[in-house]
Amino acid sequence: MGLRIRRTIKVFPGLTLNLSKSGVSASVGVRGARVTVGKTGIRKTVGIPGTGLSYTDSQRHGGAFGAGSHPGDADPHAIPFGVIVAVAFVLLVLYLVR
After folding, report:
1. Which of 22, 63, 82, 95 could be disulfide-bonded to 44 (CB atoms 3.0-4.6 Å)?
2. What is the tens place of the pLDDT at every residue in 5-37?
3. Are the beta carbons of 50 and 43 closer than 8 angstroms?
4. Are 39 and 25 in contact (CB under 8 A)?
5. pLDDT in tens, 69-95
C-alpha cells in the first residue's frame, strides 16, 4: 500500500481546494452534487446524501483545465450533459429541503 496525503481547504461555501502529494484540484458544488477539476480531468458526481448511492462521470485530459488536450479528442456533449444532471439534482435537493 502507498502513503496517501491529502488536505482540503474550504475557500467559501461550495468551493474547496484539494491538495495532495500528486497535485491540486478544485471542487465546486453542494452536498449530493459536485464537479471536481484537476490535472487528470473533470469528474462530475451526483448522489443521494446519506445513502451511499452516487454516480460519477469522469472526463480525462492531458493537463490541468484542458492543457495538453486536443479539441477533437473529447466528446463535445459530455460536459453539458453532466452540468445539466448536476443542476437538475441540485434543484431537486433544494426543492425537497423546503
Report:
1. 82
2. 888 888 888 888 888 888 888 888 888 889 988
3. no
4. yes
5. 555 555 555 555 566 666 666 767 776
Q: Taking CA 78 as the corner, what is the angle to CA 72 and CA 83, rounded to the nearest 5 degrees?
A: 140
Q: Name the pTM for this structure.
A: 0.56
Q: How many CB atoms within 10 Å of residue 63?
A: 11
| Interval 29-57 mean pLDDT | 88
Alpha carbon distances (Å) from 47 to 41, 52, 60, 85: 20, 8, 21, 11
> What cell was used for 67?
492543457
pLDDT surpasses 60 at 64? no
- Pairing outcome for strands 41-48 and 33-38: antiparallel
| Alpha carbon distance 45, 52 (integer Å) | 12
